[in-house]
Amino acid sequence: MAPPAATSGLARGLDLPPAFTAVRLRERGDAFAHALRIAREAGAGTLVHVGRFDLVELAVVLEPEEPLGRARRAFFAGMAAVADALAAHAPPEKPLAFAWPDTILFDGAVVGGGRLGWPADCPEDAVPDWLVFGVMLVAARVGIGEPGFHAGTTSLEEEGFGSVEDVVASFARHLMVHVDAWGERGFDPVAQAYLERLPREKAGDRRAVDVDGALLVRHHGERGPPRRLPLALAGAPGWLDPKTGGVRL
Q: How many CA atoms lie within 13 A of 217 on its CB side?
């Protein structure tokens, strides 16, 4: 995975690394959809974000160097970067975890999720011109009653997170770290960063990420091939509410 191209850095309160350029949309914008539309022309490192108070919504353009079937593993770099960014600004006593493959949990409650897009006409064995990793996080739960009304979800506001802009900028920096590690040491460090936050079904489980992004799981003492969970990223993710366009609450 090639690192984002070097471009400009500051935009409306976002202190981004110099490898990124920010595109800010108005409140009704859709960061992921917009990034998909402009990805070919805008190029690697373009970070689209939406200026709204209830959601953290952003999407970043990547330019892979592997065929699509393998390049989708960029999803794990994006998820690891989101988790690292949240952990850097979260109360340390509360755990941050994933539910396979794309849901982000804070202290056991859903706070958002990630997604991946690619050119619809790109064959599995061809290198795509671009990928788009998108993430949506609940910044504040508005109009749904008192905190705790939806016990299975939470928000950054309720959990005591600070500035949304700091989380976005931190995501960009951590994404660079994981992309650089992939380029220098192979995919294993990225896979480990993701798997460290994916709870084991049973103590002693051995997990790995296959070359096509599938999760391989072998229970302690089992023989034979590991169980295989495909990386299903086509279509709308389960954490996305199609009625509101936000995270399911």
A: 16
